[in-house]
Design goal:
This protein is of the alpha/beta class. The chain is built from nine helices and six strands. It has a six-stranded parallel beta sheet with strand order 1-6-5-2-3-4, sandwiched between helices.
Length: 277
């Protein structure tokens, strides 16, 4: 009885340790510091793929001998671009980027089952532990308990977190789709030479582009210019209708000057408002 209780306690401590202390690979990722070995799985919607995805996959490829990119999807959800088409797009992008040896799979359901079949750890990209740590602890807990409870009784899967390049941490698939819906180019956010294919696949029909070949920065800058011009125009209209006289002087300033003259003696000294006792 005591042996069973001790085993349960040790298992609980082990699960708690794996949950709260996942392996963290900090940025910048040191090249050549680790001998490539083992297998790793990186799952995402890749809807669409972008520079942030490739940055993590490149770091994984330098650390692991076998890397699997998994395009996850929900069979009950409708996607504008099918999972199979996203798989083909990712394979094409990886081949162009010199990472054609990364295998791409389409998986529905629990990703940890696929990782178990490949005897691989699961990798995720994060901005930093301070920003994303709390959310990752919950996901890590599910990946640990899944094999133990639903396996059933299989060993938990290790989770490895890769800190992203800070310059890429703000990129997400949802942001790219929003930009494309508004007719903006995503040239600066996707691997070089892939923007035309991505824009063709993920831009909704009949979406007018802001300017042919315009980048995100140019479009954003033009929008700021327009808003600033509108703000200047509205401010000048308010001033001209309320505070400015026909001779160009501010009414409030004119009133203030008149009051000042009333309280000033001919010698230039201010009159005292206090009565002599």
């Amino acid at each position: 009885m005591w042996a069973l209780a001790a085993s349960a306690a040790l298992a609980a401590v082990y699960v708690l340790y794996l949950t709260l202390c996942p392996t963290l690979v900090k940025f910048p990722h040191k090249k050549g510091s680790v001998v490539r070995s083992g297998s790793a799985v990186y799952a995402g919607s890749f809807n669409p793929p972008h520079k942030g995805h490739l940055h993590i996959l490149k770091a994984m490829r330098e650390r692991y001998e076998h890397v699997y990119a998994v395009v996850g999807y929900n069979p009950t959800k409708k996607y504008p671009v099918s999972a199979q088409r996203r798989k083909e797009l990712l394979e094409w992008i990886l081949a162009r980027s010199g990472m054609g040896d990364i295998e791409v799979h389409v998986v529905s359901g629990l990703i940890w089952r696929f990782a178990k079949k490949k005897d691989a750890c699961m990798c995720r990209g994060i901005r930093s532990w301070r920003k994303d740590g709390s959310a990752e602890i919950f996901l890590n807990f599910l990946n640990i308990l899944g094999p133990m409870l639903l396996g059933p009784c299989q060993s938990p899967i290790e989770t490895v977190l890769f800190e992203a390049d800070p310059s890429l941490s703000g990129i997400s698939s949802s942001r790219l789709r929003k930009l494309l819906e508004n007719g903006n180019s995503v040239k600066n956010l996707v691997p070089k030479g892939t923007e035309s294919e991505i824009e063709k696949l993920f831009t909704p029909p009949n979406t007018p582009m802001t300017t042919p070949g315009a980048t995100l920065d140019e479009a954003a800058f033009k929008l700021l210019e327009e808003r600033a011009a509108a703000l200047r125009h509205s401010s000048s209209s308010i001033l001209s209708s309320s505070n400015v006289t026909s001779d160009g002087k501010n009414c409030d300033i004119s009133r203030l000057n008149k009051r000042k003259k009333l309280h000033t003696s001919p010698t230039g000294k201010k009159k005292s408002s206090k009565k002599k006792r």
